[in-house]
Design brief:
374 residues; alpha+beta; 3 domains; 6-stranded antiparallel beta barrel; 7 helices; flagellum; signal
């Protein structure tokens, strides 16, 4: 062909082939250390408190049935200078509630946090209510925050004389930024000589890979896996007194996590989740449905006119048994997850039957994975 320089074409083709061979390939999905582990000590703390919600439109607690609501209302009014001891209180606008929230890590005095309000008595609806000042206590009994504000709910309830409808849960509400932090939890992060990473999913291989990634980044042996769920980091000299900067650099490193083969089964909803490393040995699988049908067609027997007989009912039952059988299918040794799913789908097996088949294969010792039933 005129005008074509074959030597140049050959050099371009060889260069493209070398480029394809040198192009990096990813063996698996990588994640940041920030998404794989938590910093030990940097965590939330749960708070709880007991309070009163007022301003309800007749949907509060029945004071005669809920004594603690009545006692709380009396104590609150007495603190306000109102003495109602011995008086009869009839109101449906007050409800006793439990207030819960999570104190964020490094929460400082004066900052706000969200709280959840849940009815404790027989209140029907918290819509339109206002939570009065409620101290929130930690596990040590100290008050760490104080909550107050208007309750917002997602559910609602409407009823008439002969019918009612309820959507969501109207007895649980939320107050955005409804609590003010009053006490701080001391945690001197920058003074720590070492930091420990707590893996969210414990695994020996993942812990080792995290330590290797940190050591490669720093150029010195600073990280060491202690157990499957913990990696200890020694603070390098250049980051002494500035642990935050050190963690900022570390948490962005990419690591490929490794988890054991596991199958999660939720029998109530029929959900099945299988990991990519699930493997099956050679096994034959057959599945059939056995259906038993029983139909009743009773026959009425009446006596002749003017006779002394009586009308009787003679039962007649028709019982049929049918079996929808499937052929045996052989699952070969070491098949992948995709091949296993394709093979079982080829048998026309639904999720419910698949749960029983997976458990039977595990019982036969032919599946290399842990089965966890929720």
């Amino acid at each position: 062909m005129p005008g074509v320089h074959w030597g140049k074409v050959l050099r371009v083709a060889c260069g493209a082939l070398v480029a394809l061979q040198l192009w990096p390939t990813t063996a698996g999905a990588t994640s940041r250390i920030k998404d794989l582990a938590n910093i030990e000590g940097v965590r939330q703390n749960q708070l709880v408190g007991y309070g009163l919600v007022v301003g309800l439109n007749g949907t509060g607690d029945t004071l005669n049935n809920i004594p603690f609501t009545k006692q709380s209302l009396q104590a609150m009014l007495e603190r306000m200078g109102v003495n109602i001891r011995g008086a009869t209180i009839r109101t449906g606008n007050v409800a006793a509630v439990m207030v819960t929230g999570n104190l964020p890590p490094f929460g400082t005095q004066g900052t706000r946090m969200d709280v959840t309000v849940s009815a404790l008595g027989d209140s029907k609806n918290l819509q339109g209510g206002t939570l009065l000042v409620t101290p929130l206590l930690g596990a040590d009994g100290n008050v760490y925050a104080v909550a107050q504000g208007s309750v917002t709910i997602n559910g609602f309830q409407a009823e008439g004389a002969a019918a009612s409808i309820t959507r969501g849960v109207p007895t649980v509400g939320r107050i955005a930024n409804g609590a003010i932090i009053e006490r701080e939890i001391e945690f001197a992060l920058n003074r720590l000589p070492n930091v420990r990473l707590a893996l969210r999913n414990a695994d020996f291989t993942t812990a080792k890979r995290i330590a290797a990634a940190v050591n490669d980044f720093l150029g010195v042996k600073s990280a060491e896996p202690i157990d499957p769920s913990t990696v200890q980091l020694q603070i390098p000299p250049e980051f002494k007194g500035n642990v935050v900067a050190f963690l900022t650099e570390i948490e962005q490193l990419q690591v490929e996590p490794d988890l054991g083969a596991k199958i999660i089964i939720d029998e109530r909803s029929g959900i099945i989740v299988m990991g990519r490393d699930v493997r099956v040995a050679t096994v034959a699988v057959a599945q059939g449905n056995l259906t038993v049908s029983i139909s009743e067609s009773p026959q009425v027997s009446q006596p002749a006119p003017f006779s002394r007989g009586r009308t009787v009912v003679t039962p007649r039952s028709n019982v049929t048994v049918s079996e929808d059988g499937k052929k045996f299918a052989v699952v070969k040794d070491g098949v992948s997850l995709q091949q296993l799913v394709d093979g079982l789908n080829g048998l026309g097996i639904g999720p419910r039957d698949l749960i029983g088949i997976l458990q039977a294969i595990k019982a036969a010792g032919a599946i290399q994975a842990d089965i966890e039933v929720m």
